[in-house]
Write a structure and sequence with these properties.
Oligomer: single chain
Radius of gyration: 28 Å
Length: 562
């Protein structure tokens, strides 16, 4: 029972669900695959023991984690480990836009500009991270928090343009904003711009640097901005509860917590996992790798239908694994076949919000887990899935160690042409999607053809939709042609379908090729039979060819040709 519940708690932590959550929340948000019918029955039968275990775990966790306390703002505030790495990368390539996020939101309905500006100003003053810059003092970056100040929303009026002209203007401005790099020293690192198209239609551009923001933060922004707009529209006061701590408090706490025995335990695990694995995943590329990454990216999008998606879910559930684990195991097979490596590392992002105090904070908390996938003994897919499940669970249990610190401790060879330890990322975005709730307004994200940036050789992001499973393959245009990524995406679809049909097959038996590719390789390209005249000998055929192409080179040896 204890082993089962440990797994259960690890799953919850992987989704950022804290042990402070009540029983109903645990039950409602438990990920698919973990609450199998048998486990539900076991939990039901032994409910008192479960609750006692969770209470003990909560107590143990509170003892292990020093509570995050507010710190004085009169000294130099350090960066978090994740921020420090982004600061370093920014100064290495100050013109890079790879860590800029640009949200383009189309707003339909009668928008109250005054209330929107007031709401945005309140949000920026509420979260210190929005008012933070990163100057250097004695060669080291610090967090400098600017005091609250009046906010003015930049508004451009394009109501006099035709719809086609408005679309062109939106595209032009979005491309311009996407190309501009941030100055981390000066800021602001959140920039907002509203384009008025008519009395009932606007576009809001929200540009923000990753050093103050992550994917979870966008959900917080949606919820809080919706609540503020609704309250101010009705002449009510700010309805949001005050924040007990801010991001800078977390950064100070993190450096205190990750030391001594805690640090040693976390480091020991990851060093044992990664010391013997090759530090580079060498996928075949279409172009020579440039000496320095340019982060120019492209994207190919695929859709797995509901039948395939449900088949993958059921396969995982039958073996106590989540959809993410099943997809990751299949992706590991694909990478192994492409690279020829049987032992490899795939990066995966994790929210890393495993304390209740930091759940409502906007900031850069996300961490990267370096997950090892070992196919060296040609396991069956089910055996590989069990391995990936255990590796993932253990990774969740050791998620506190920042990826940046792991890189520093392992000290892989520095190479500006690729990322250290992890060159390929894989993610399943399974957190709930927050929706805007502003009176009388409809808000949706616009997808414009703004130049993509990529931070790794390849990033694969999956999320569930009404049709099944959508998959984005974001790739480095310095390395890959579009056709190569499209073919890789098709091979992944073929692979997961084969896995559903025969999960007991060994990883080398699982097919990648489409029927058309198999026919081309086995039949078309091998169909080399030629009808030669039967009345002539070979030397006569040779002489006839000489007469047709007398100047063609027949034989080459070193520097000589005949």
């Amino acid at each position: 029972m204890r082993r089962t519940i440990v797994k259960f708690v690890c799953y919850l932590q992987s989704l950022g669900i804290t042990l402070e959550a009540d029983e109903n929340r645990l039950r409602a948000q438990a990920p698919e695959g973990i609450l199998t019918p048998a486990l539900r029955q076991e939990i039901g039968d032994r409910k008192p023991e479960l609750l006692q275990f969770l209470q003990q775990a909560k107590q143990s966790k509170s003892n292990a984690h020093l509570p995050i306390q507010p710190v004085a703002r009169d000294g130099h505030l350090p960066l978090s480990f994740a921020q420090q790495r982004l600061w370093f990368l920014h100064h290495l390539s100050p013109d890079s836009r790879s860590y800029n996020a640009l949200e383009i939101l189309q707003i339909e309905g009668l928008l109250n500009l005054t209330v929107l500006e007031q709401s945005l100003g309140e949000l920026i003053n509420r979260h210190e991270i929005f008012r933070t810059t990163f100057p250097t003092v004695s060669g080291e970056p610090i967090q400098q928090i600017l005091p609250p100040s009046p906010f003015r929303l930049k508004v451009d009026n394009y109501q006099d343009l035709s719809p086609n002209e408005q679309s062109a203007k939106i595209q032009q401005i979005a491309e311009l904003e996407a190309r501009k790099a941030f100055d981390l020293t000066v800021g602001p690192l959140i920039q907002l711009r509203l384009l008025q198209l008519s009395s009932q239609k606007s576009v809001l551009l929200l540009k923000i640097h990753h050093i103050i923001y992550d994917g979870w933060s966008f959900g917080i922004l949606i919820r809080e901005l919706s609540a503020l707009y609704e309250a101010f529209l009705n002449n009510l006061s700010n309805p949001l509860p005050p924040l007990s701590i801010q991001y800078a408090d977390f950064a100070v706490w993190q450096r205190q917590y990750l030391s001594g025995e805690v640090l040693d335990k976390q480091l020991k695990y990851w060093q044992e996992q990664l010391t013997t694995v090759p530090p580079v995943l060498t996928l075949p590329t279409d172009k020579p790798r440039p000496a320095i990454q340019t982060f120019q990216g492209g994207v190919e999008r695929f859709q797995l239908d509901q039948n395939v998606t449900q088949g993958l879910k059921k396969l995982g559930q039958d073996h106590g694994a989540t959809l993410f684990m099943t997809l990751l195991a299949g992706f590991g097979v694909l990478l192994s076949r492409y690279s020829g490596q049987s032992d490899l590392v795939v990066g995966s992002p994790i929210a890393n919000r495993n304390q209740a105090a930091i759940e409502p904070l906007i900031g850069f908390f996300a961490n990267t887990l370096a997950l090892r996938i070992n196919l060296s003994e040609n396991p069956s897919f089910l055996e590989l899935l069990e391995q990936v499940k255990q590796t993932t669970l253990e990774g969740y249990a050791h998620q506190d160690l920042p990826f940046e610190m792991l890189v520093e401790k392992l000290q892989p060879d520095r190479d500006l042409s690729r990322n250290p330890l992890v060159q390929v990322m894989f993610a399943l975005q399974n957190t709930s999607q927050d929706t805007w709730n502003l009176s009388g307004l409809s808000i949706e994200s616009l997808s414009l053809s703004v130049e993509e940036t990529v931070r790794f050789d390849l990033e694969v992001n999956c999320w569930q939709n009404s049709e099944g499973l959508a998959i984005d393959w974001i790739y480095s245009r310095d390395l890959f042609d579009t056709a190569t990524i499209a073919r890789m995406g098709e091979h992944f679809q073929n692979l997961v379908q084969a896995i559903i049909l025969n999960p007991k097959a060994t990883v080398k038996e699982l097919p990648l090729l489409t029927p058309k590719e198999r026919e081309q390789l086995l039949i078309s390209w091998n169909n080399t039979k030629t009808d030669y005249p039967q009345e002539q000998c070979i030397h006569q055929l040779f002489e006839a060819q000489v007469d047709r192409t007398p100047m063609a080179i027949a034989v080459v040896f070193e520097e000589q040709s005949l």
